[in-house]
Design goal:
By secondary structure, the protein is of the alpha+beta class. It has 3 helices and 7 strands, in the order βααββββββα. The chain has a 7-stranded antiparallel sheet with strand order 1-7-6-5-4-3-2.
């Protein structure tokens, strides 16, 4: 299996699952580390998930949209994702697949994230930009959950 376009990261937080889950799913929390974007969803399988932020002109914009495909509260969420502003076709095969999974550790909670760009339009460019972005995001997340 070609894994060259899959981002995989693991982070251990000195926090319990509830705290890490809140970090991932609470719009007030995501706004602090996800480039000022609030995540919006009802967290039910088949429902939309959106990252909403503001432009430089202070206009509200959807930066990422997708559909929840798997959800187990405080454990795992998977969803599709697409930046509707990239100018690529809004078709299912252009949506990357994202999964957050939490596991208990002796010293806290492990977040394992996987983002799969295989088969998407401009996959290499999107992979590279997201990979660089995750380094910034994870650093910010760790500052929030000290």
């Amino acid at each position: 299996m070609d894994t060259s376009l899959i981002i995989e990261k693991e982070v251990i937080f000195e926090a319990n699952k509830n705290q890490v889950w809140d970090l991932l799913t609470n719009p007030n929390m995501t706004k602090q580390y996800m480039f000022a974007c609030s995540v919006v969803s009802n967290w039910e399988v088949g429902s939309p998930i959106l990252w909403i932020g503001k432009t430089e002109k202070n206009e509200e914009i959807t930066y990422v949209k997708g559909i929840i495909s798997e959800f187990v509260k405080n454990e795992k969420v998977s969803f599709s994702m697409l930046d509707p502003n990239l100018g690529i076709k809004d078709i299912p095969q252009n949506y990357a697949q994202m999964t957050y999974e939490l596991t208990d550790e002796d010293n806290g909670t492990r977040l394992t994230l996987s983002q799969d760009f295989r088969g998407t339009e401009h996959a290499e460019k999107r992979y590279k930009e997201s990979s660089e972005g995750w380094d910034i995001v994870i650093t910010a997340m760790k500052k929030i959950l000290v």
